[in-house]
Amino acid sequence: MEEEQKLVKGTTNLEGSESEAKLELTVDEVVEEYVGSLGFSQMVHVFLVSLAWIFDAQSTLATIFSDAQPPAWRCKTGLCHGNNNSTGSVCGLVPGTWEWVGGNTSSIIAEWNLVCDRRFLAAVPASVYFLGSLIGSGVYGHLSDSWLGRKKTVQLSCILTSITAFATSLSPNIWTYVFFRFANGFTRSGIGICCLVLTTESVGRKWRGQVGQYGFFFFTIGFLTLPLVAYPTRTCWRNLYKLLSLLPLAYSLLLLPLVSESPRWLLIRGRDKEALQVLDRFARLNGKKKLPNNLTLVNPCGSSCDETSPNNNKENLWTTKWAAIRMVTVMLAGFGVGFVYYGVQLNVENLNFNLYVSVAINALMEIPAVVIGTFLLGFTNRRLLLSVSSYIAAVSSILCTFFSHKGGTSKVHNNNSYGGNWGQLIIEAIGFMGASTAFDILYIYCVELFPTNVRNFAVSMLRQAIMLGASVAPLLVVLGRLSPSLSFLVFGVFAISSGVLSIWLPETRNAPLYETLKQQEEEEKHSWMSQNDCALEMGK
């Protein structure tokens, strides 16, 4: 690296003194040589930024409690002919002759009577929430790459998430609630994508993968703490949203100002001095020396960008046949993975177990999913890992159907009990771990399947497919209230389909990351021909 450093003679001052040499380095070179790949300052930076994932998880999964089917109902004294069997249906009863055991404010279903012919309205809020996330991802992605930056985009997203969450708690009817859930999904979508970029752009190459996975642990913390927040508000779903609205607002005003903007974004926006100030602050907090006074940063969008841009613009993923087929395959797999990953989380209310304990155990299963996935990626084929994790999710979901039959309609009694069906809960948790692993692996797989000039576009298309699958899942959850076994069976079928689709994707383990579509097509064709020649020689 030292031989590649550029020493450029600067201009002489007006007195004709000796010219000062300028040291030109890239951000990567400054981080590796002067700041440190991952020092104390970057660990604090990553920690503070990753805290926002907690609110992202809580906002996404709050509907598990706010939109849940109440556990039981009862007849009012003498009004339904002595029928006090809460395992029966309320659809044949006269309105006003029965009541929910937990009160009419325990969930939106209880408050707005979303049962019988109105049952599918209960799925609409969660579905439009994910549709809002789908649209918002593109908007926030553009804002963070252009004039707003990563840090301010996270701050804006947190503040708007807080406002829309509080507004949700004031909804007078189901359709207002649907609108604010859509708005909440739109506003929160900037948290995850910007936090991922803001953390990885502050560390050296060696640690980018680990730091990228770090955010998933904080998402898990948000998932795990949600039952602790929801339980005290179990008698009033509005209080849940009011409480959740305070956390992102406090974070954006008290902690986020301590975070530095991405030096890479500052550089490409022409704010070189600010970028150097951020790097110098990181270096000093890491115990390093102050950056050299003659240090300047090499802007990556210099002459090289001008030379490559025309070529990149000519290449289009959808007009390149092999890339388009591969993208469609990845998106179909992503639709299934998103459908199962988010659907299984929302479907916990259809387990024969206490809702709060079920959510907590599912959240805990995210931890081994991230750890195992990170460990296996080092030496396991991506295609094999994606398919096996999908099949684990599928088999577990299908096995849950047998336990659902055993539970029958008596689940309204057991739903509030800690002594529910442990066998079903354990199998469902294993299946969720498989779905979570497949979810994480598919993102990494997609990054490796496409070249640099279309990689971001490919990942955004995958995210849209995942969000589309997630938006359909709540409909099946509502159907599962009538037939839990059917919902688990459908999840199993979609998980199998995602695993099968991986057969048509090439293996990328130890493969290089290509720069253009043309280069990747030629190199993969050459590699395929070489493998066939070797196979023919071995067969002789």
A few lines on this structure:
This protein has 540 residues and is mainly alpha-helical. It is 66% helix and 3% strand. It folds into 2 domains: 254 residues, Growth Hormone, Chain: A (Up-down Bundle), CATH 1.20.1250.20; 193 residues, Growth Hormone, Chain: A, CATH 1.20.1250.20.
Could you describe the 3D structure shown?
There is one protein chain. Mean pLDDT is 79; it is low at 1-19, 303-313 and 405-419. The chain contains 21 helices and 5 strands. The strands form 2 sheets. A 3-stranded mixed sheet has the order 1-2-5. A two-stranded antiparallel sheet has the order 3-4. With 540 residues, the chain is mainly alpha-helical. It has helices spanning 27-35, 40-50, 52-61, 63-66, 108-112, 124-145, 150-168, 174-200, 208-230, 237-254, 263-268, 272-285, 303-314, 321-346, 355-376, 382-407, 411-414, 422-449, 452-480, 484-501, 517-539; strands at residues 6-9, 21-25, 73-75, 98-100, 295-297. It folds into 2 domains: 26-74 and 98-302, Growth Hormone, Chain: A; 319-407 and 418-521, MFS general substrate transporter like domains (Growth Hormone, Chain: A).
